[in-house]
Amino acid sequence: MTTIDLSGPWTLRRKGDPRFAPVPCAVPGGVLAALLRASRIPDPLAEGGPEAVGWVGESTWILSREIVADDALLAHDFADLELDGVDTLATVSVNGRVALRADNAYRRWRADVRPLLRPGPNAVAVTLRPATPATAPRKPALAFGAPWAPPLPDAGLPLPARLRAWSRARIADLGFGQKHAPSGPVELLVGGWIETADDVDPAALSLSVRVLDPDGAVAWEGPGRIPPGGGGAFHAAARIRAPRLWWPSGLGPQPLYTVEAVLRDAPPPAPPPRRGGRGRAAAAPRPGPVLDRASARAGLRTLLPVARGSGVSALSCNGRTFFLRGAVWAPPEPVSPPFSREALEPWLSAARDGRFNTLRLADGCPPPPPAFWDLCDEYGLVVTGAAPLGDHAAAETGASALAAAAGDAPPPEPPAFLRHACVPDTLLGEPDEESGLRIVRALVSYPDPETLAAAVPPAARNLTGPAMARRTALRGGPAALLSALVSRWPLPASPDGWLRLSQLAQAADLRERIAEARTAPGASGLLWEPFASAWAAADAASLDAAGRWKALQYEAARAFAPEALFARRDPATGAPFAAYVNATPAARRGARLAWRLTAMDGATLAAGSAPLAVPAFDTLRVPLPDFAAHLRHFGPGGVVLWVSALDDEGYVLSRDHLLFADPRDLRLQDPALSVDLDEAPDVDGEQVLKATVSVSAPAFGIRLELPGVPALFDDNAFALEPDETLEVHVTPLERADPAALRRLLRARSLFDLARADENG
After folding, report:
1. Which of 192, 423, 468, 695 could bond to 671 as cystine, CB 3.0-4.6 Å?
2. How many whole angstroms separate alpha carbon 356 and alpha carbon 346?
3. What are phi and psi of 532, to 5 degrees?
4. Coil, strand or helix: which one is 361?
5. Are residues 70 and 211 in the same domain?
6. Do residues 99 and 116 touch, judged by C-beta distance below 8 A?
7. Are 117 and 93 in contact (CB under 8 A)?
8. What is the pTM of this model?
9. What Cα–Cα distance (Å) separates residue 25 from each residue in 22, 31, 38, 62, 549?
10. pLDDT at site 402
11. Residues of the chain with pLDDT under 70
12. Calpha distance 449→637 (Å, rounded)
């Protein structure tokens, strides 16, 4: 078998426009990204809006490149042109002859182009026609716009492509199922399909299967059975005696096994015995030549929807029902989409580090690239909402692929994501809004100031301008967002203050929604949309253009922690209480709950503690005292309640605070913020520093900054109790002098934003 990877540079030109000079276009990739890199269009999210690039979606584009066919490639019987994704209406030709026609962005396309190839250079062209919802029902709906995404219909080859030449037979599909006993071994059922030339009987071939454990050792090996008359289907049952189970993030590790299949031709016939010679033992038959190899990774687990008495569904992994903590995944912006593992990793590692265990594909989402599924397997991120992708991939429309010289193409191949550990065993019955899963869709803040400055031209940074109006459209535009802020929060004087404040406000809103869902009995999960407005590099998403966190992401990480403490008030009586959520397989014992009521000058008004013991996968609600007398004396804006969960050694497991008034009505005092920066041991070769923050009065929305120095913080945008300290680990993206960083480090809080208004 010979494989030519078709990823890399192609040439893009506009059909029927000789004045349009061709530009390079990367595959995987699309037309918009290529035109933007070549400075042929303005940034549709920052300069002129989507209207400025509307002509792109109305044009016909041609992607082209050459394939050199040498003698080794041409010696094969077949040469399959494999396109893992086509967006969307396209005609693919080789040397001017049509190889296939595509009309579905949710399936893989393949055609045998061996009859079309000639020795030396061969011209491959993909003609991409304009698409509308009527002409291309299998085009991702998000391309035509959504409440939070502008209409930016793209075109191109968004997933990998290759030319695979083969002879006699190939492994066309490799997949697996699992049988789990209540305890003990797991039977991994390996199966698939072999495609052969017309004169080859699949049953005459041999197939061997090997399963490697997560450390690379052989866990099982044996032959695969190819039944006669089975049309090329094969199967094997691998018994894994001591399975290492795969779990969603926070419930356990994510070990992955590797399944390898090797297809061989029939062995050569044994030579006849020599006449008159002395008898000798027959030699073992030599294996036939290798025709093809295939491999895939498998996570040993069950992952199924379960129904509860109220009709609310949830997901269960390995027999354990768990709360879905996560996000709705919308594709990043089409002008610079991440296709590679390196480009996707910042986004998905941010989800993992944010304590997510679930991602739900947004409605109308295009098929994510292979690296997306691989990383979700590795990070323990369960992917729901994939059912429409499977439906679209299996659907046949009137313009299915037609191989020009080889007759009808084989039926569509099954979606590649179906064999991944991160996808539930059944795509039906997944938790959704109707069955109890809450999806928070209205959390939008202004961009982060540093990201705004780096990614948006100065003329488009106006808080109430048209560019910002597009980014905040989900909340009714800038006017509605400003009105919501001033109704509950103090008034900052500077644009920078408004940007910071909007993120703090939305983070507080997000925490309240997560707390409500996690403490509600029988809730199946909560997802929010940190990627919802990721069409723009500097917008309301909780991650900036480099994948760094904003206030919302820090708050989500705290609220989604496997063990989390929430201070709340009963909606009926107003009485305060603390709820401790233990979403781990181990009971929390020997801990205690500490609470303290302080005035805004930091003075302690009341304090106490109580034992804390919470079973595994349970929630404990602890009533707190009635503070009515203190509220009457100091006023609702003059006090704050702090709660902490401490383990038996006094280590803080989780903390929270409860306000009795809106932030704008708090009688904030200078918290005397103090921050120091010390060196810490390197972690995996990366420089790490430790920032120690302390205050003398209640401080909210504390933000650490290193102006001009890109850095990652393991916590930020937090509140801090008087006379308490918090250690924050800081990782500069490039090694720097600690003394210089110490001089640059700044800390600001809500008090500074409000004071800016007073001094403005």
Report:
1. 695
2. 14
3. -60, -40
4. strand
5. no
6. yes
7. no
8. 0.89
9. 9, 7, 9, 10, 31
10. 29
11. 45-49, 147-149, 268-285, 308-312, 331-338, 390-417, 427-435, 442-444, 454-456, 467, 470-475, 531-540, 545-547, 755-760
12. 29
- Give CA–CA dist 156/128, Å, rounded: 7
pLDDT in tens, 705-750: 998 888 889 999 999 999 999 999 999 988 999 999 999 999 999 9
> What DSSP designation does 636 have?
G
What the block records as the tokens of 57 is 């979606």
Task: Identify the domain containing residue 243 by its residue range.
Answer: 168-268+287-301
Which residues on adjacent β-strands are paired with residue 642?
596, 657
Q: Are strands 438-440 and 525-528 parallel, antiparallel or unpaired?
A: parallel
Q: How far is CA 323 from CA 44, 110, 518, in A?
A: 38, 40, 8
Same domain for 173 and 136: no
What is the C-alpha to C-alpha distance for residues 645 and 601, in angstroms, rounded to an integer? 24
Last residue of a domain, one of 667, 694, 718: 667
Together in a domain, 157 and 231: no
Q: Which residue's structure tokens are 């009515």? A: 628
Structure tokens at 623: 């009533």
pLDDT digits (tens, 9 = 90+) for 507-550: 999 999 999 999 988 788 998 877 654 444 445 577 776 667 88
Beta-carbon contacts of 275 under 8 Å, excluding residues fewer than 6 positions away, are none
**Other Cβ atoms within 10 Å of 492 Cβ, number:** 22
Same domain, 674 and 662: no
E runs forming strands in 213-331:
218-224, 233-240, 257-264, 290-298, 303-307, 313-317, 320-322, 324-329
Angle between helices 341-353 and 370-379 (to 10 degrees): 30
C-alpha R_g of the chain: 30
Rounded CA-CA distance 506/514 in Å is 12
**CA separation for the pair 618, 753 (Å, rounded):** 39
Residues 723 and 651 in one domain: no
CA–CA distance, 549 with 542 (Å, rounded to integer): 6
Residue 540: the pLDDT is 59
Q: Give the up-direction half-sphere exposure of residue 663: CA atoms within 13 A in the CB hemisphere.
A: 27
Residue 554 domain flag? no
Are 187 and 78 members of one domain?
A: no
